[in-house]
Design brief:
single chain; mainly beta; globular; 12-stranded antiparallel β-barrel
Length: 207
């Protein structure tokens, strides 16, 4: 019975996407020399009316789950701009709340993406932080893109800032995208992030 239910999950996702909107799943693996591989899965859903939901695990802190809600606002003329304010809660090893914004900009073969947030702990005030992940890339071919990426963390109470520059390259196969990041390359603290992402869109009606 368990196996039957597992097999039905992909079909259920397709039915939801076909009826209500867009579903995305992202899987990131953090790889370095000093620690075990860390897995960070993320799932997103956006309705046909642009209501947005995002679930994350191991993102704000290890062994922590977060759930966000928001709404997407878009603008499209010479370029495409998408802005999604979000707010949510974090439970697990880290307990608290978070507010943030996701931004995507596409212009011809260039694209920019940013995910930023302010996260606060309800247990320890010294764990409040600001975080931003951004990337800008050029896509010369349908199957490949490359560019720059940065991560920046600011611990509010201690006024400590950590800035990590990086390089990225990504490969596109159908609905799948496989990004590879190298943060702080050439330094002793450098590490890689390997991604496997898929996005399923609601098919447009054709008359």
């Amino acid at each position: 019975m368990t196996n039957s239910r597992t097999l039905l999950i992909p079909f259920g996702i397709l039915i939801v996407v076909n009826t209500y909107g867009q579903f995305g799943f992202e899987q990131y693996s953090y790889v370095n020399n000093s620690e075990a591989i860390s897995i960070v899965p993320m799932a997103t859903f956006e309705s046909t009316r642009n209501w947005y939901m995002e679930a994350r695990f191991n993102y704000e802190e290890k062994n922590s789950f977060s759930l966000y809600f928001g709404k997407t606002f878009t603008y499209q003329k010479k370029m495409f701009i998408s802005v999604t304010p979000i707010a949510g809660a974090v439970v697990g090893q880290y307990k608290g709340g978070s507010v943030g914004v996701n931004v995507d900009i596409d212009y011809r073969k260039l694209f920019y993406s940013m995910q930023s947030q302010y996260t606060f702990s309800i247990n320890r005030a010294n764990e409040d932080f600001l975080f931003a992940w951004s990337e800008i890339a050029y896509q010369p071919f349908k199957w490949c893109y490359f560019g720059l990426s940065t991560q920046q963390t600011y611990l509010i109470q201690s006024a400590t800032s950590l800035f990590e520059p990086g390089l990225l390259i990504g490969f596109i196969i159908g609905s799948w995208t496989f990004p590879i990041y190298s943060f702080s390359p050439g330094s002793s603290s450098g590490y890689f992030v390997l991604g496997a992402n898929i996005k399923l869109n609601r098919p447009e009606n054709k008359e």
